[in-house]
Amino acid sequence: MEARTPAEVIKDAVTAVTGDGKPEIPGKPGSGTPTVAEPTEPAAPLPPSHEQGQPDTVTPTGVPTGAAPEAFAQQGAYLTTAQGTRLRDTDHSLKAGPRGPILLQDHHFREKITHFDHERIPERVVHARGAGAHGVFTSYGTAAGLTRAGFLAAKGKETDVFVRFSTVLGSRGSADTVRDTRGFATKFYTDEGTFDLVGNNMPVFFIQDAIKFPDIIHAGKWHPDREIPQAQSAHDTFWDFVSLHTEAQHHTMWNMSDRGIPRSYRTMEGFGVHTFRLVNDSDETVLVKFHWKPKLGVHSLVWEEAQLASGVDPDFHRRDLYDAIEAGAYPEWELGLQVFPDTPEETFAGIDLLDPTKIVPEELAPVQPVGKLVLNRTPTNFHAEVEQVAFHLGHLPPGIDVTNDPLLQGRLFSYLDTQLTRLAGPNFHQIPINRPHAPVNDMLRDGFHQHAVHGGVAPYRPNSLDGGNPFPAEDGFVDVPVTVTEAPKVRDLPVSFKDHYTQVRLFWKSMSAVEQEHIIRAYTFELGKCYEQAIKERQLQCLANIDPVLCASVALGLGLPAPKPTIELPEVTPSPVLSQVGRQWPADGRIIGIVVDETDIKDADEVREAILAAGMVPLIIAPHGGKIDSLIVQRTFATARSIEFDALLLAAAPVPAPDAFVARDEKSGAPGTAGVDPRVNLLIDECWRHAKAIGGWGAGAQLLRDTGLDASPGVVVHDTATGVLAAVQKLMASHRVWERFPATVG
Ligand code: HDE
């Protein structure tokens, strides 16, 4: 092919769009202008199409609203005002002449602009950034002896759910992949009333008493003068707080570990954090901790990937969740319980079950599976569902009760209270996403945004005017009659809450060498971003009380002396289950990029089919969009970035096309390294640095040989495409090629 200049390429592209290339004169469409017939009026009234949304006779979770269809928006085909008056024009305001001012009487203009002015609602004070999806929970029936809650007790019982995942610190528009805790909040629409399990992806919390929540959040969020940094804990106030409130050290270590940068919402565990109390039909009680275990295993990004994603694709986790559901790779978790006897001490193996900064290692109390959650539907409208969903720890069905965990007690107040501002009044439970699937017959009346038209005259009990309705239920919610110790009122916590270091050491000691190295790097990065020397030194003292190797390594990175511990370091028994390394996981829904070009598409189609058949997602990456032969291109060299792929296959070693001016070095005009398109080189380089499996056949294999990468662990070269795929699939089971990370500590 004859080489063309960039100017020629652009001219050809423009000609292709405008037809014969005649210049366009504003106001006078040239002969090359494509004619698009604008539909003005339907030939006959059309029934509402799916996109317009059927009148909402059901809530977003599928429950009949009981309201007449006329009560809901988006009916018929014609544009109307909010009052249903058909409109002729919505593009021009009503003016005193075409050049005159807008008239105050333009009711359509005022309605449109006023509504727009009030479209936003306050974002959540924490967990503002999130994404949600609908799904189904199916009970295994294994909790039948423990709780009377029907959605857990009956084997095979299906319950609709809505789950919202979130980051904690950032604003609504912040990036998904920042280092932070993730929220994992689940609304179970049970037949006996809604149950909200409002958990996180980490089993412990920063503080032990809810009264400190505003303080930790003020410290973690942006500095109040400049409102930076956004969605980051790498700043002075955060480290000031956690080094002064040493109870925060356990949660902080989880944040600095790979758990703070999950690969996907689909690969996160979830934890109820607090201990709850279950009560069965015989009024017997047990204490439990809730766990969500992802089917795909727990996987994380590496720090460079997380940073890249924040810029390249700030919606990384949101997109991953929705793409997976739309591709039919439904995210799945098992709900499990750690069960403890309900003793007056409320401890297990010496661990205070009311302390939310402590875990009970799974080796001591195994997680017993009680049901399965599958997310299978994306929201129809983000605002209506994800923004307006309101979780509250007090949404409890009969059979599940709370404990005296001082954090849980405070949350019971906060979650109801916060909705009053965020959702502008006390009737937020009537918003479709929040409507229970159980019949509601409360005595709550009136208030802002009241949607119900309540009948009767006697919203009080007992009454003789409404036939005595509503009646108390024998099988209603059980407040377990726990004995409250007679004790003086105090502002204090139990002595057992004062050990702030043993379990942090336990976590550190449970990590593999590579995970420990990531933790060291994370502390070094975050403290390196602080300005105050005193804060760095104080945090180093905390690290010294956790582990001398950890402390010395971080101190080295900061250029500060490593302090000696001020406590005797306890003996701990590691909990191997806390490590993400060393296990094999299914690869369902994982994404494999396949690099092809015009000359080397041989076998790519076959590999694509094999990836699909294995339940994974293939993405064809090519020099340009459209098609190459019959292969549909999903990513171009311009739009692909390594962070999206869990593994990379090379069917080709694409050279920069002569007319692809973007692929050339601007100054020399020379093609990229080794004659290969530099963007492909970058893909390979990043996948290698991030310890992802890489494979190649044909020209792709030759490229890996030429660069010497074929000698690296986790790089597969083979004569056949299928041979490469089989080897890469095997490597993907352990998520990353861990041997590729240099380990600096043992
Ligand atoms: Fe929250 N938290 N929280 N939190 N939390 C909120 O409620 C609060 C805590 C968690 O997707 C708020 O509706 C206090 C622990 C999640 O809509 C607010 C305390 C855990 C979500 C609130 C905590 C969580 C929230 C803000 C200390 C894990 C997002 C908006 C006592 C077990 C829910 C809202 C969603 C949201 C208060 C601590 C998880 C202000 C006072 C511990 C997943 O009410």
Automatic annotation (TrEMBL):
Reaction it catalyzes: 2 H2O2 = O2 + 2 H2O
Residues of the Catalase core domain: 80-469
Region annotation (Disordered) ranges: 1-68
TM ranges: none
Gene3D superfamilies (UniProt xref): 1.20.1370.20, 3.40.50.880, Catalase core domain (2.40.180.10)
Compositional bias of kind Basic and acidic residues: 1-11
Enzyme class: oxidoreductase
Keywords: Heme, Hydrogen peroxide, Iron, Metal-binding, Oxidoreductase, Peroxidase
Cofactors, names only: heme
Listed Low complexity bias regions: 55-68
SUPFAM superfamilies given in the database record: Class I glutamine amidotransferase-like, Heme-dependent catalase-like
GO function terms (MF aspect): catalase activity
EC number(s) on file: 1.11.1.6
Similarity remark: Belongs to the catalase family. HPII subfamily.
Function: Decomposes hydrogen peroxide into water and oxygen; serves to protect cells from the toxic effects of hydrogen peroxide.
PANTHER family for this protein: CATALASE (PTHR42821), CATALASE-B (PTHR42821:SF1)
Protein name: Catalase
Organism per entry: Actinoplanes sichuanensis
Phylogenetic lineage: Bacteria, Bacillati, Actinomycetota, Actinomycetes, Micromonosporales
